[in-house]
Design goal:
mainly alpha; 3-stranded antiparallel β-sheet; about 90 residues; elongated; about 55% helix; 3 strands; 3 helices
Length: about 90
Amino acid sequence: FGIFYFVFMAILTPLYGGLNIVGTLPGGLVIPLISTGDKLTYIGWYILSLLATGLPLGKIFQAQPKLEQSPKETERVGQKGRNEVPR
């Protein structure tokens, strides 16, 4: 996402940052923080673009957040392994 952020801040904001409205949304569709009424704002367009590109890229590259286990969970998993009877 760093590349998209850099392009947004360095190149696109000076060109289009003064625009209040980038596009219109279908009638009745209001998205908080992204639209003003039925109008798509510039920052809203940026957020939607990040989601539209980031989610498919995450699926393609199988990016997953690293989950950390608490000490209790680690201990419980260790005890479970010791209590199992070998076959």
